[in-house]
Amino acid sequence: MKTCALLLLLTAVAGPSFATRTLHDELGRLVIVSDHPHRIVCLTPSVADALYALGAERDVVGVSEYTKYPPQARQKPSIGMPLNPSLETIITLHPDLVVGSADLPPINIKGFERLGIPVFLVKPVGIQGVYTSLLDLGKALNREPAADALVTRLTSRVEAVRARV
C-alpha cells in the first residue's frame, strides 16, 4: 500500500515536468514537443523574427548567421548558415526544440532526430501561409493566444492597406 502511494506521489510530481504534446508540423511530420519549450534554436531568420513577435525571445538560445531582425536577436549565439547549421554548436546549446523552414535539407533533420531533438518546420506560402505558420508556431511553443493576437493585428494592417488602395 505504501509503495503504491509513493508511486502515485512520484508520478504526480514528476509527470508535469516531462509533459509533451504531439503535433504535425507544416510538412505533415509528427513532432513531439515539450509543453513549454524554453531552449529554442531558430534555423532561419524569418522564424527567429516570428518567435520574437510571439514573445518567445527569452526562450531563443541560438539563431542562424543571417538573422538581423529583430536587432536583439543578433545578440544570441550563431548556429551557422541557415541551410547548413552546425550540429555541434546546436548540441552545445541543449535545445528542447529546433524550429526552421521547410527548405532545411533532410539530412539535417535526421541528425537532430537521432539526437532526440525535436524539429518543427514551417512552410509559409503567401500571406495566408504566413498567418498559418504563425498560428502553428504558437501551437508548438504553447503560445496560442499570442499567435492569435499577432495574426489579428497583421490581418488588420493588411485590411487597412487594402482599404486605402
The radius of gyration over CA amounts to: 18 Å
CATH homologous group name: Nitrogenase molybdenum iron protein domain
One letter per element, helices H and strands E, the order comes to HEEEHEEEHEHEHH
Regions with pLDDT < 50 over 5+ consecutive residues?
A: 3-17
CATH class division: Alpha Beta
> What is the CATH fold-level name?
Rossmann fold
**Helix content range of the residues, please?**
40-55%
The mean pLDDT is: 86
**In total, how many beta strands?**
8
Summary, kept brief:
The chain is an alpha/beta fold. It has helices spanning 2-14, 45-53, 87-92, 106-114, 126-140, 144-164; strands at residues 20-24, 30-34, 40-42, 60-62, 80-81, 84-85, 97-101, 119-122.
Structure, explained:
The protein is an alpha/beta fold. Helix content is 44%, strand content 18%. The protein is built from six helices and eight strands. The strands form three sheets. A four-stranded parallel sheet has the order 4-3-7-8. The protein has a two-stranded antiparallel ribbon with strand order 1-2. A two-stranded antiparallel ribbon has the order 5-6. 30% of the residues are buried. The model is unreliable at 3-17 (pLDDT under 50).
Show the helix and strand layout.
Layout: H1 2-14, E1 20-24, E2 30-34, E3 40-42, H2 45-53, E4 60-62, E5 80-81, E6 84-85, H3 87-92, E7 97-101, H4 106-114, E8 119-122, H5 126-140, H6 144-164
Parallel strand pairs: 3-4, 3-7, 7-8
Antiparallel strand pairs: 1-2, 5-6
Helix pairs in contact: 5-6
